[in-house]
Write a structure and sequence with these properties.
The chain has 68 residues and is mainly alpha-helical. Helix content is 68%, strand content 0%. It is built from three helices and no strands. The chain is globular and about 35 Å long. The C terminus is likely disordered.
Amino acid sequence: MVHSCTDLEQYVQFLQLIEEAKATGHKHPLKWAIQEAVRRNILRDYLERKGGEARGCLPAAPSERSEV
């Protein structure tokens, strides 16, 4: 039960990072929030395992898109 509370608290912190990134105008708020959460040890194990999947769902920046 205590572990679940810690996970929930860290999830809330992660959501706050996303909102912070949006509010400050980061071009890729989710990507920044994932990197920042790992740096701050927020949901680190989970994000290191699954963060790539979340980043993979993001649209590519114009410079990252392949020419068609």
